[in-house]
């Protein structure tokens, strides 16, 4: 496997900035790809050891392009995550004034984060989506658009100027990125972990989602992301992308996954990995019997009963 990481490019994306915060990135060749799909496909094809892509932002939630790529196709697994605070700059060719701007571009995930700023400052501009924020900057450099929303750090790379900086509609906006590779044994638990899965129901029925969520709730497992995605099998057919606190080696998490495997049509395990915020998961005190020690004690009791030693 080549010692390289694929990432959503071109150079100058927020994805590249977040990737370079990983210590291991300094020992890998970092290769930009034109889309999330192509970066993940590079891993599937054995052209890269791992791919680094955005998966969630604090304004709009899950990034559907990434979720859909992880839901479908050859299985991949998440190994690390990074949180990056996001503010945008409006990048223009030198000499451009605000009144000159008729067209703007950026990645689709950027639009909800600057929508109100646009309404106040450039209400009549035409928005066009780009493959990434840095690619939008490149398109401005080429003269195809008047301005791009991107990181201020991308200005010098593309010969542009930041006309406005510190642009964001939501304070403390963050984007979450994940390092994705081929399936292997998860890293050892740290005590501050997250487990990601995709669930498909056997059939659509009243209380179906409640049944899935109940496997987590009865074991005191907090969910951090719940997002439905269409399966492509027709209107009303969805799978569910879930991030839960804890590690698959935690007894309560493992038992929840076993319960889901019994009742779901399909379960895709996307990995157990350290939380970027390093916050340990907490068992709700109102739910006795949900600690690992209590699960182990219960399993030992069943074993003794089977041996006639109760």
List the helices and strands and how they pair.
Blueprint (H helix, E strand, L loop, with lengths): L3 E5 L5 H6 L9 E5 L2 H9 L5 E8 L3 E2 L1 H8 L5 E9 L2 E5 L10 E4 L4 H11 L4 E4 L3 H9 L5 E4 L3 H4 L3 E7 L6 E8 L11 E9 L6 H10 L5 E8 L7 E8 L5 H13 E11 L17 H15 L4
Parallel strand pairs: 1-2, 1-3, 7-8, 7-9
Antiparallel strand pairs: 3-4, 3-11, 5-11, 6-9, 6-10, 12-14, 12-15, 13-14
Helix pairs in contact: 7-8
The total count of helices amounts to: 9
Gap from first CA to last CA: 52 Å
Provide mean pLDDT, rounded.
92
- In one word, what is the shape? elongated
**Cα Rg:** 22 Å
Proportion of residues in β-strands: 25-35%
Low-confidence stretches: none
Q: Which percent range fits the helix content?
A: 25-40%
Classification by helices and strands? alpha/beta
Task: Tell me what you see in this structure.
With 310 residues, this protein is an alpha/beta fold. The protein has helices at 14-19, 36-44, 64-71, 111-121, 133-141, 154-157, 208-217, 251-263, 292-306, and strands spanning 4-8, 29-33, 50-57, 61-62, 77-85, 88-92, 103-106, 126-129, 147-150, 161-167, 174-181, 193-201, 223-230, 238-245, 264-274. α7 (208-217) runs antiparallel to α8.
């Amino acid at each position: 496997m080549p010692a390289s990481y694929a990432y959503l490019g071109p150079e100058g994306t927020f994805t590249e900035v977040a990737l370079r915060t990983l210590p291991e990135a300094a020992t890998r060749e970092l290769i930009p790809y034109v889309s999330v799909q192509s970066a993940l496909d590079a891993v599937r094809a054995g052209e890269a050891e791992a791919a680094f892509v955005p998966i969630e932002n604090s304004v709009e939630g899950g990034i559907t392009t990434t979720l859909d790529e992880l839901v479908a196709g050859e299985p991949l697994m998440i190994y690390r995550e990074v949180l990056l605070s996001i503010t945008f700059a409006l990048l223009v060719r030198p000499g451009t004034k605000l009144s000159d701007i008729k067209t703007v571009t950026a990645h689709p995930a950027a639009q909800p984060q600057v929508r109100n700023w646009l309404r106040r400052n450039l209400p009549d501009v035409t928005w066009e989506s780009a493959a990434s924020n840095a690619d939008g900057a490149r398109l401005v450099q080429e003269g195809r658009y008047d301005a791009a929303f991107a990181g201020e750090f991308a200005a010098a790379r593309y010969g542009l100027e930041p006309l406005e900086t510190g642009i964001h509609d939501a304070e403390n906006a963050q984007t979450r990125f994940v390092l994705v590779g081929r399936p292997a044994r998860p890293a050892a638990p740290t005590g501050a972990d997250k487990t990601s899965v995709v669930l498909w129901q056997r059939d659509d029925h009243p209380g179906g989602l409640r049944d899935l969520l109940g496997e987590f709730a009865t074991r005191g497992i907090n969910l951090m992301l719940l997002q439905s995605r269409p399966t492509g099998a027709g209107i009303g057919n969805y799978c569910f992308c879930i991030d839960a606190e804890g590690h698959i080696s935690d007894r309560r998490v493992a038992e929840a996954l076993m319960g889901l495997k019994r009742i779901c049509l399909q379960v895709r395990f996307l990995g157990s990995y350290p939380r970027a915020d390093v916050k340990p998961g907490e068992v709700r005190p109102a739910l006795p019997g949900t600690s690992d020690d209590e699960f182990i004690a219960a399993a030992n009791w069943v074993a003794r009963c089977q041996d006639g030693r109760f």
